[in-house]
Write a structure and sequence with these properties.
Blueprint (H helix, E strand, L loop, with lengths): L1 H29 L26 E3 L1 H4 L2 H13 L4 H10 L4 E6 L4 H17 L5 E5 L21 E6 L2 E7 L6 H10 L10
Parallel strand pairs: 2-3
Antiparallel strand pairs: 1-3, 2-4, 4-5
Helix pairs in contact: 3-5, 4-5, 4-6
């Protein structure tokens, strides 16, 4: 008798699981599924390369737009209103100008001004010509790219022509980034915030 009860119980469990499998198959076949985008390959957590806390050396704008850096770069970029009339004056003056930007991904002033600089240069069509150099808290890079450049504070935006420095904006502008750049490019008297 016990054997018969046991056998009935096993049979009931087998039938129930078979019903669930058939119902799942039936419900999947009854509702047409729209194919979604292909799944991105999942990289095991142990193989993911974490974003560094600080960039040092030559860098690309896209590095500032992603990960934790994007948390400050993207909002500061979108919130800044470019002075369009000054941008129109800047466009022809920037034609043959080399642009070097030293900044720190750890620095509050760099986090504020770097996205603004990019937005202004985007408006002038000059974005591709920026040499972006990220420094550590000692204002140095592993490659020594700061040597001979007198980098004491960041951000430091250096405008040069034919290898000769025209002027620089250090840490923050005196009037505005656009107005300060215009003075430098026109050769008008200009002293950055920390000039002697």
């Amino acid at each position: 008798m016990k054997y018969l009860k046991y056998l009935s119980l096993v049979l009931a469990i087998v039938l129930m699981s078979a019903c669930k499998s058939q119902n799942a198959v039936a419900s999947r076949s009854e509702v047409p599924q729209t194919p979604g985008p292909p799944e991105a390959a999942q990289i095991p957590t142990s193989q993911k390369t974490p974003q560094p806390d600080m960039l040092t050396g030559p860098a690309e704008r896209r590095e500032l737009q992603t990960g934790s850096f994007g948390n400050w770069f993207n909002p500061n970029y979108s919130e800044y209103s470019v002075d369009q009339s000054l941008v129109e004056e800047l466009k022809p003056l920037l034609q043959d100008v080399e642009i070097t930007l030293f900044m720190g991904t750890w620095c509050g002033d760099s986090k504020r001004e770097t996205p603004r600089i990019y937005k202004i240069l985007d408006a002038t069509g000059k974005t591709q010509d920026i040499e972006l150099i990220t420094v550590d808290r000692s204002k140095t890079t592993p490659q020594g790219l700061e040597e001979g450049k007198d980098i004491k504070r960041v951000p430091t935006l250096i405008l040069s022509k034919d290898g000769k420095e025209l002027g620089r904006i250090v840490e923050y502008p005196i009037e505005s980034l656009e107005a300060d750049m215009l003075k430098i490019l026109k050769g008008e008297p200009y002293k950055h915030a920390y000039a002697d």
